[in-house]
Amino acid sequence: MTISDVWLFRIVHQDTGKPAQGVPVTVLDKGGNAAGHWVSDADGIVAVPRRDLLKLRLRVGLRSEDPIELATATLGDEPTPLAAPSHLPPSTSGAGERVVRELQVVHPAPAAGTPPPPARGPDPVDVPGHVLYFQRLAMFAERAPAAASAARDPVADFFSLAGEGSSAMRYGALIEVEEYWQSLGVQWGELLYSATLTPGDEAKLAVLDGRWRREAEGRERPLQILARMVGTSMLGDLVSALRPELQLDALTLTEPGLEAAAADTVQLVRDRTERMSNALRRRPLGVVDAPADAPATGAVRTVRNTTRDRLVTFHFFEPLERFKVMVRSPRARPVIFVPFRLPNVATPDVVRRFGYLFRRTLLDRGMLPDLERLLGGDEASVPAGARGRLLEHIEANLLYYSTAIISAGDPAARHVALSKLRDPAGRPLTDVVENNVVGRIGSAIALPLRSAAQLPAEWRDALAAYHAKPLRVTEGFVVTIPHPGVWVSAQAHEPMQQQADSQEAAG
What is the CATH superfamily name and number for domain 3-88? Predict the structure, then answer.
C-alpha cells in the first residue's frame, strides 16, 4: 500500500501540539456506525485507506466524543493534524493485556460465526440436589341416588359465596409428591448483545429482564419461582416457609383405587414443570444501550476496554442451568373435609385481633401502611378512604383470609372449634383427626385422619392396597431453566497496528 492509497492524520495534544500516542480513531459510515478502527502510533500518525467519498466522518477518541467531517478534496499527501481529546485513554504499560469485566466472570466468548462453548459438566464435588414438594387433595365421591342427581339444577352458579350453603363432612386423601432436582451444570444460552469498544472506551448497557417479577431484595431462587408456577401456596407467598408444600388442582375420585390418581398426579407435575420452564424462558430478556446520563442501578452495567492497542468485544449471554428431574411415587394420607362458615373478618376489631396474620398474608402489599396504621390503634391517623379500601379488599377475599386465620391461627382455638363437631360415624372430631390444616377445597378445610380405620370400608381397602406397593422413582427427565441477570465475556482482538499491517500487506 503506497502513500497515495491512504489518508494520513497526525493526532496531537491540544495544549502542546506534540504527537499523541495510543488515541483511537474511528471512521463512521452514513448511519453513524463504525466502518473501521485505528490507533495512533508513537509519532501520532494514523493511516486510513482512501475511499471514494466526498466527506470523511471521523471520531477521534472515545464514543463520547463528537464526530468531525472533513472534505476529502482538502486532504493532501502530508499528514493532516487532528486535535486529541482533552481526556486521553490510559496508556500505562501492562494495561494492554488486562480487560476489566464488570459483570460475572466467565470464559472467553466464542469466535464470530461459531456456536457458544459447550455446557460445563457437573462439579467434581457431590453437590446435593433440591427437593420440591407438591400435594394434591382428592375427595371421595358420595354415593348419591340417581333420582336425586337427575333432579339437580344443571346450571352452575359461579358467583355465590362458597360458604352460603351447609354441607356434610366428606372423606378423601392427600396425595404427596416429591420432585428431586439434580444439577447437570450451567451453560451458555442465546447471545443477547455484542459491543465492540476501542482502547479506553466504555459503554453503559441496560439489562431488561422481565422474567423475575419480584423485588431484588426479596428474590427467591429460580427453582422456587418455577415451583410456584407449577403449584400454588394455600396461604400466599409470604408464609410459604411455614408449609413448603405447594398445592395442585384438586380432583374427585368416583371409584375406589388410588393408583390411577397417583399416576395422573405424577404426569401432571412433569407436564407442568416442562411447560413452566419453557414459559419462564419466553419472558422478555434483552440488553440495550443505556443513555449516558443513566444512573448506576442494578439494571445498568458499565463495560470498559482498558487495553491500549486493541479492540475488545463484549458478548452478553443468557445464563442457563440444566437439571435432571426425578419424581418419587406419591404417598397418600387419609383426610376428612370439614366445612366452615365464612365469618365476617372485614372489621377493624377482627383485623386488630389477627394483625400478625394479616401482616404476613396481605395480598396487596401496597395496603401495608394502611394496615399498620389500623393496627396501631390510632383511628384519627387512618384516612376513612384508606381504611374503607382495606376492609373492602379483605371482604372481597374473604375465603382466602378466613382460611389463613383458621390454618395459621391459634391451634388451641381451632381445637376448641373442632371439639364441638362429630364425624359421620358419630365420634368426636378431635378424637380422630390431627389438629393440622393441610389444604382446602371450597369452604371446607382438609384435616389428616389419625388412622385409615376411620375411612369407609371400600376406601380403607383401596388405601391399604396402595400402601402395599413399594415406593419407586419414575424415569428422570431433563429441564433447562434460566438464571437472573446475564453473563458477559470479553474477546480481545489483534493489536490495531498489526491489523493495519495486515491490511497493507493485503493491498
Answer: Immunoglobulins (2.60.40.10)
